[in-house]
Amino acid sequence: MSKQEIVAMLRAALRDVMAERMVAKTDKETRAARIALKRFQSQRMGGTHADLLASSDTAAAARFFLEDLYGTHDMTQRDADIERIVPTMERMLPATALQTIAEAILLDALSESLDAAMARHLGIEFDENAYVEAYRAVSLPADRERQLAYVRSVGLSLCELVRIPLIGATLRMMRGPAHIAGLGQLHDFLERGFQAFKAMKAPRDFVETTIARETRIMRNLYGGVPSPFEIE
Question: Range of 154's domain?
Answer without folding.
Answer: 3-223
